[in-house]
Amino acid sequence: MRLALALVLLAAFASAEVFFQESFDDADWSSRWIQSNSRSDYGSFELTADHGLRTSQDYRFYGLSAGFGKFSNKGKELVLQFTVRHPQKLDCGGGYLKLLPSTVALAGFNGDAHYHVMFGPDICGYGTRRIHLIFHYKGQNLLWKKEPKPETDELTHAYTLHLFPDNTYAVALDGKTVESGALADDWAFLKPREIPDPAASKPADWVDDATIADPDDTKPADWDDHPAEIPDPDAAKPADWDDDNDGEWEAPLLANPEYKGPWAPRMIPNPAYKGPWVHPLIPNPDFEDDASLAVYEDIAAVGIDIWQVKSGSVFDNILLTDDAALARAFVDGPLKAIQDAERKEAEELEAKRRKDEDDARRKEELEDAQRRNDIATEEKAAAAAAAADEHDHDHDHDHDHPHHDEL
Fold first, then answer.
1. Is the pLDDT score of 146 beyond 90?
2. Averaged pLDDT for residues 102-121
3. Is the pLDDT of residue 269 over 70?
4. Which of 188, 63, 42 lies closest to 113, judged by CA?
5. Residues 6+ apart with CB under 8 A from 342
6. Per 3-state DSSP, what percentage of the chain is helix, strand, and coil (rounded to 5)?
């Protein structure tokens, strides 16, 4: 079904340029993807019944990549979209992809390999739940200043990245935009346009105290008449108190409700206050603007480089294109059908689970009732046997002792 839908989409958007597309709809997928040999203990992927690529081993790193003809996103929109599902209720692990240059040897692809973009969900406990979007720029991997939340349920979800030629971006989850804006605002691509003037400093006579003590305010004469603590008026010297041995008895102290605390003059607005001093800014001589912040001349592969504590995540429907409408069509059509089928399956499994629980409970109740019935039957039989024994004993006793009229 998904392959047919994908073919319909491709026919509808024949003018779109698709740089890479993978839906794992044939058994030959492993010939297109290269398993990294960078580690000897990488986890293995397996194909699911509905043609997705699933992690299959717990507590493992995974390294897999697929190459294609290199291209540049200069002057065009770049759309990276894929689906990932965590039916195992992922507790700690990644679900993201990387875009790689042709300089990366795919057979040795690992977490240290150079990449252009890393995008997708990252989950670990309740503390780490975010959609990663990292760009490589001038030798550094730049972290996103924002941390939008991924989906954490057990359905398939589509993550979509749009990179626009005007240095803006948008990230969508199941077709709904969760973040967007200017690249320069949300990542540290550029040095600041302005910096504090190193030649400027706050004047020595600058007054930045908004209030001052009222010079006309004086402490009342009776302010200190009431101490902080007073003897407890309800306390009494214990009857067995011995002054010679215990010392002079003193009542315990209590907080004095009439104590006013330390006196301080009231505060009034400072007539000399100038407000907070603001360091003047000057143009940053090291600032260099860049109209092509996330433009990459050599995009040649997509890779999966993740760690998972609990395996079972399913990657699918990977699309790299310059046409946002093509990506949107998948979200509005096939994705909805996939999610509807998964919800139906989940509902059926839940109904079966409840039925199995009800059946097990009824079976246990019947078995318990049968046990109680068996016990009652055994007790009744035992009581009848005891009564019969008693009757036989009395009958034998009568025969052993004849009545007087028989003598």
1. yes
2. 97
3. yes
4. 63
5. 85, 154, 155, 156
6. 25, 30, 45
Phi and psi angles of residue 9, each rounded to the nearest 5 degrees, phi first: -65, -45
Q: What is the pLDDT of residue 407?
A: 45
Residues 80/316, Cβ–Cβ less than 8 Å? no
- Whether the pLDDT of residue 405 is over 90: the answer is no
- What does the mean pLDDT of the chain come to? 90
Q: Which residues pair with 107 in a beta bridge?
A: none
The answer to whether the Cα torsion of 375, 378, 384, 387 is positive or negative is negative
Is 169 within 8 Å of 161 (Cβ atoms)?
yes
The model's confidence at residue 136, banded by pLDDT at 50, 70 and 90, is very high
pLDDT tens digit sequence for 315-327 = 999 999 999 999 9
Q: How many residues does the chain have?
A: 407
Distance in angstroms (rounded) separating the CA atoms of residues 176 and 164: 17
pLDDT in tens, 45-84: 999 988 899 999 999 999 999 999 999 999 999 999 999 9
Rounded CA separation 282/17 (Å):
45
Reported CATH class of domain 2-193+292-342: mainly beta
- Assigned token pair, 137: 């720029």
Do 151 and 163 contact (CB within 8 A), yes or no? no
Cα–Cα–Cα angle for 151, 157, 158, rounded to 5 degrees: 120
| Residue that has been written with the tokens 């203990």 in this structure | 41
Separation CA 372–CA 382 (nearest Å): 15
Residue 123 CB-density burial (10 A; 0-12 exposed, 13-18 middle, 19+ buried) = buried
Which SS3 state, helix, strand or coil, does residue 348 take? helix
Q: Is 106 helix (H, G, I), strand (E, B) or coil?
A: helix
